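From the pipeline queue, job 12 of 40. The input is one protein chain; the requested action is below.

Action: predict structure.
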Amino acid sequence: MTYLQPFTLLFLSIVAVGLCGLRRHRRTASWRVAFCGFWGLVVLTWPPAAAILAKPLAGRYVKQLRPAGDAEAIVVLAGAVNDATRERPYSLVGRDTYRRIMHAAWLFHNWNPLPVLASGGPESQGGKAASLIMRRMLEQEGVPSSKIWTEEQSRSTYENALYSAKILHEHGIHQIALVVEADSMLRAEMCFRKQGLGVTPAPCLFRDTEFGTNELLPGWQGIYRQEILLHEGIGLLWYWLRGRI
């Protein structure tokens, strides 16, 4: 349990008590707005609600350690990477990028020692390409340098697929194992398929709800996942309108 969760529950309870006290005004527009706002907060902060909304995205993928299909290369997409600053003269990968790198390295050692393509350009103008940082981390995890390729231009999922496909086609690769989280897999998979590649999903994380104390209380976990789901939902719609998937 985090410090935030009890306070989130407390404030939601206060709002619920207030709504009960105003039930005599339930036919007014203001009461309806407050009622919808309360349930909007519940959906936003409650992890089981996020798990239900994630089903169309992540529910299609099987939870297993090793991919259920063949591949000729492993492709791992960059997530967040924080560039070096004056106070911190080195780059830091975000939690999502670190998780993906570790999973790609694990697949190399425990599933199939295929070439690993790290895909990700610079976070900012003049910054270092994320894939170069990913290469170093893959090498630290025992993946031979000769087995690592880098794509250093992309700054979106669409560009990940576009630029990676060129590299893969140059090497005669037609089937890949794709590494991202299950919630983010659908858009990435569709982008790579649009570029003429076969995709074997290799999700590095399934955000399961265990229905323990942390999962049943509202808090930042629900908000965090809802942000990811909203990003993916808007991204799918935008990419579909632009013909990218």
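Job complete. The two ends are 39 Å apart (CA to CA).
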